Automatic annotation (TrEMBL), chain B:
InterPro entries: DsrE2-like, DsrEFH-like. Pfam families: DrsE_2. This is DsrE/DsrF/DrsH-like family protein. Residues 9-43 form a coiled coil. Keywords: Coiled coil. The lineage of its organism: Archaea, Methanobacteriati, Methanobacteriota, Stenosarchaea group, Halobacteria. SUPFAM superfamilies: DsrEFH-like. The keyword Ribosomal protein does not apply.
């Protein structure tokens, strides 16, 4: 498990492209500088999409990404920091 | 190469004041050019949406909302059948064409039967719901919330006898090809869908 101090968690389970990125943008806008957003998705495409979004968007950085199992679902978890 | 050979002579004869003035002029020009090219680093995208079938309504809206999430300045100019995407009532009833689509699991002769478009559309809508894919209405509301400028071509509005009240709140009307071109000329990404 990640040891990042999470300020807020965004649950986008069951949603597919483009909603994980779009909802992450909205959630990041509500954070203050330095705070960390944890995004939990079931969309395997979110691994590449959220990394790409964070890398080319000013003011955010992707701290960590991990895959975990929850009952029958594979979860894709992202830790994004607002700079 | 004679101009290169002449250059040192000119430099030698120019006064320090002349050179300083020249450097200042060049620096000012460079600053102007940097400003023109840089534009605060903000990217922009213009999409021309021309299709009104369910499958063709998705790509412009998905790209537009995602680009807005990147902080880009986004304009989607809707013209001809693309206008149906912005039409509040019609956008909820966009159809998939069963005919002439090799990806459909049925031969064209069957696809051409009455109501086959409705069958294909229902199948697609069921898949969309099962997959957690957003509806067209959700994508439009999301795009507008994020500041995407959804524009409805004025000429097409009149051609199709639409009323401006029939479009989603927040849709820009009263715009034409010149407005679209102006955005395209300044945009980093231009797409016609």
């Amino acid at each position: 498990m990640s040891q990042h101090e999470v300020t807020q968690t965004l649950d986008v389970k069951g949603l597919s492209c483009p909603m994980p990125v779009v909802k992450t943008r909205g959630a990041v806008d509500d954070l203050s500088a330095g705070e960390v957003l944890k995004v939990v998705s079931t969309d395997s495409g979110s691994m590449s999409d959220l990394k790409g979004w964070a890398d080319s968007t000013d003011g955010v950085s992707m701290l960590d990404q991990e895959e975990t199992e929850e009952s029958d679902d594979t979860l894709f978890v992202h830790y994004i920091q607002k700079e | 190469m004679s101009s290169n050979a002449d250059a040192p002579v000119e430099t030698a004869t120019a006064s320090v004041e002349d050179l300083q003035a020249h450097v200042e002029t060049l620096e000012a020009e460079l600053a102007d050019l940097r400003e023109a090219v840089d534009d605060d680093g903000q990217k922009s995208m213009t999409i021309i949406a021309t299709k009104g079938t369910l499958d063709m309504a998705y790509p412009p809206l998905i790209l537009a909302s995602t680009a807005a999430a990147f902080g880009w300045d986004v304009v989607v100019f809707h013209t001809f059948w693309g206008l149906e995407i912005l039409h509040e009532e019609k956008s909820k009833n966009l159809k998939l064409s069963a005919v002439g689509n090799p990806s459909m699991p049925m031969p064209n002769a069957v696809a051409a039967l009455p109501f086959m478009d409705n069958v294909a559309t229902s199948m697609m809508e069921k898949k969309i719901a099962e997959n957690g894919t957003a509806t067209i209405e959700e994508l439009i509301e999301t795009s507008l919330d994020m500041g995407v400028d959804l524009q409805a071509c004025q000429m097409t509005i009149e051609l199709m006898d639409y009323d401006e009240d029939e479009f989603y709140d927040g849709v820009t009307t009263g715009v034409g090809a010149a407005t679209a071109l102006q955005h395209m000329a300044d945009a980093d990404v231009q797409l016609m869908i």
